[in-house]
Structures are given as C-alpha cells and as structure tokens.
Amino acid sequence: MTKPEIRQDYIHDRVVIIAPGRKRRPHDFPPTTIIHQDQGPAQCIFCPPQLQDVKALLTIGRGLNWTVKVIKNIYPVVSVGNDKAYGYQEVVIDTPDHNVEFADLSAEHIATVIDVFGKRIRALERDAKIKYIMTFKNRGGKAGASIAHAHSQIFASSFVPPHIIDKRKRAESYQILKGRCYYEDLLVKEQKGSRWIAEDDYFGAIAPYASSYNYEVWVIPWRHVDNLGNLKAVERLSLANMLKRLLTRLSKLGLPYNLFCHQLVNDKNEHFYFRIAPRGDVWAGLELGSRLIVNTVPPEDAAKFYRGSKKKK
C-alpha cells in the first residue's frame, strides 16, 4: 500500500485514514512522553512488603507467596459514596515480581490473571447499580501508566459511555438484518485475508480494517460469549497464550500500549473481545479537529509483523 486510503468501520463509528507515507514526514520536536522514574521494589507500593497491611479484595496464594492480588484503587474516579459518579475502581496486581513484564509471565500465570478478572467482574455485577465494566491495562508512560510494576485495572460504573451503547445498537441492527453476530462474521471474513494474525480452536486475532492505532489488534473468541467471567478454563488459557504471543511481538517495537475490553452488564448478547492499542503516534490538530484518525501503519503490514516468519494459513 503506497497511497493513503480512507476506511470506515460502521459498527464502531470510526473513520480512519491509512497513510503509510506520513511516517516519513520530518520532526523538529520529539513526541511528548511521560517520563517515569522506577523507584524499585523497595519503594514500589505494589511489591509484597508494602502490601502486607493493605486489605485485599481477592488474593491468589497465601501470605507473601501470592501470585495475583486485587486491591481498591486509592485514587478512583468513581466511588460508591458518590451518586453523581457511582462505581468501583480496582487494581489487579498481575505479579509480586517487580521487574517482570506482563508478556514475560507464563501463559498459565496470565490465565490466572484473566480468571481473576472474571471473578471480580462477577462480584461487581452483584451491585444492581453497575451497568458497565471495563477491564484494562496501561503499559508505559504514553499509555497512561504511572507505576512500572505490572498491573491492570477494573472500572465499574452506573454510567454507560454513549459510544458503547451506539456500538451495540449497530451490532444489534446487523444481527437483525443478517441473522448472524457481527463479530462471528468478522472472524470468518478475515480468516483467509491479509489482516489475519493467528488462531486456535477458541480465539482469532486480527489487525482491524480501520485500525485507529499503529499495530492495533483485536482478539476475538470464536464462541459467542459476552464477558471474561463466562470463559471456560481452556478458553482462558487460549486467550493467555494469544495475548502473550502478541505482546511479546509488540515489545520488540518498544511501544507503550493499552489493553482493554468492555462489558455491558445488562446485555447478555454482547460478543466481547480484547483490543490491543499501541500508543506510538500522537494525535494532533487534524485528528482532534476533524475526528479523522490518521494511522501510518496499514493493518495489513501490522498483521504481517505479528505473524513474523510464520506464513498465514
């Protein structure tokens, strides 16, 4: 691909200009970054010694020999004591080891983290006021991370973001017109194409047609399942293997990233998926003013990068 191309994703209300030549433009100013000074395990608030007296919402393991721990976020943007911004915000500490990246964990350990996500989702769903839950990870300063120690977050709110509702309405319209789930059709459509990355019996990974971010990836279950809490053990391990493979490849580029998935509590027909959003480019006046996103890496090239030396089936 040499010429820019405008691509539209109707379901997600997204218009993107894929412009590979734009990455060659000159830069007098380096991209703004958030510089993080890692204080090390002795001062890290997520390391075991500093967590001894912190009440945990869920712990996998005993004493200082835990493997995953969930605590309240001490700087939440929502809380159960605020009716104007009602909700919960929790931190999932992925590992007690300070110098281990999420992608460096074993697939079995990552599957345990995913299981913990599901357990906390089911717990938060019991609050009748909660309508929306997002599980996410910020890795790197440009992706919004403030602490180096590998961790994730769970955000649960009584407020549902309007764009999430709009996306679901369009997906439901597709279901009514076609008689099939949009995401199941998307997997079948992309499986033999140039944006296909990987698959096993439970998940498929694609670089989406109208990718908003350089090297963006969606990891979608073949089975129609609405949230992480309903995954089977074999599916959690499959997802863990897929995420480990993709994030290990992404780490070779040194890019910060966000990893997230959404859930509408009262919508059991939703088809959940994980989105990996690398944060290499900075959105400037064109993107912010026009809401036309410029992506300098064609998703076809991104898929080829993630496939590596393996030939696409």
What does this structure look like?
27% of the residues lie in helices and 22% in strands. The model is unreliable at 24-35 (pLDDT under 50). The longest helix is centred in the middle third of the chain and has 19 residues, at 107-125. The strands form two sheets. The chain has a ten-stranded antiparallel sheet with strand order 3-4-5-7-6-11-12-10-9-8, sandwiched between helices. Helix 2 (107-125) packs across helix 5. It has helices at residues 48-51, 107-125, 162-178, 182-190, 233-251, 285-290, 299-307, and strands at 5-9, 14-18, 58-60, 68-72, 87-93, 132-139, 151-157, 196-199, 203-206, 217-221, 257-264, 274-278, 293-295. It is of the alpha+beta class and 313 residues long. It has two domains: 5-25 and 161-259 and 266-307, HIT-like (HIT family, subunit A, 2-Layer Sandwich); 48-157, HIT-like (HIT family, subunit A).
What are the key terms here?
single chain, alpha+beta, 2 domains, ten-stranded antiparallel beta sheet, 7 helices, three-stranded mixed beta sheet, HIT family, subunit A, 13 strands, 313 residues
